[in-house]
Design a protein that fits this description.
32% strand; 16 strands; 3-stranded antiparallel sheet; alpha+beta; 8-stranded antiparallel sheet; single chain
Length: 240
């Protein structure tokens, strides 16, 4: 085949754009903007600080487009943030029925108030379980927050029967966990499944044949960072 016989190269252009504000946050942006306008009538001194607050609220609920790596052996990060824990732990009792009783490796991702707070499913499959539990609002960076804070558990089952559990955990500032899916829903890898309003952490429970691909202190990007690889080699040691 000569160069003249080769099919034309297909190219495309991707342009950067401002992230949209998720519908869940639009009312908060509107409230913040309304308060800004109202209080500005009382004092012009408050204008710029309140404008800054409105911009921050809009940024908090930003919903950027993400490109999820393809591969049935990949588990992607469900949250933006800092990887703060990689440790083998006991399974939450709410997940034992789906994941079994044996301890699994838990990867914890802490979200600051400056991170994107839209959470995504680590794998494609069917939502088998969604369990909401009311609780405290301790600092989400604490280990005991997994058992004591307000939280919402998810279990997703892949086509091959593999199940991945992950948990949204409210934190010191967070006061509301919002879910977008219910048991029986089909989801694609990296699909939006919920958000934590003004907070704080997501835990992912990796199966024993899945090797962590992130390190402590690494920053993850929801729907894009490869958190684990089935049958792979662990990137770091695991605390026992």
């Amino acid at each position: 085949m000569t160069s003249l016989d080769k099919p034309p190269l297909v190219t495309s252009t991707v342009k950067w754009r401002f992230p949209a504000v998720h519908p869940e946050g639009r009312k908060y942006v509107a409230i913040s903007a309304g308060i800004t306008l109202l209080l500005t009538i009382v004092s012009n001194v408050l204008f710029w600080p309140l404008v800054g607050l409105t911009i921050w609220v809009a940024a908090f609920f930003r919903d950027p487009v993400r490109t999820t790596p393809q591969g049935e052996n990949l588990i992607v990060a469900p949250a933006d943030g800092l990887v703060t824990m990689i440790q083998r732990v006991a399974i939450p009792r709410e997940l034992v029925g789906e994941l079994g009783e044996a301890p699994l490796v838990r990867v914890s991702i802490f979200m600051s108030v400056f991170d994107v707070h839209i959470n995504r499913t680590p794998i494609a499959g069917t939502i088998r379980q969604v369990v909401y539990i009311s609780g405290k609002f301790l600092n989400a960076d604490l280990d005991k927050a997994s058992d004591e804070n307000e939280r919402q558990h998810f279990v997703v089952e892949a086509r091959d029967g593999r199940k991945i559990g992950f948990t949204q955990i409210a934190g010191l500032v967070a006061r509301r966990i919002v879910g977008f899916v219910k048991p029986g829903d089909m989801v694609a890898a990296g699909q939006r499944v919920g958000l934590i309003r003004f907070g704080s952490r997501v835990d992912v429970y990796l199966p024993d044949d899945c090797a962590p691909q992130v390190a402590l202190g690494q920053r993850s990007i929801a729907g894009e960072t490869v958190l684990g690889r089935i049958g792979g080699t662990a990137a770091v040691g695991i605390a026992q």
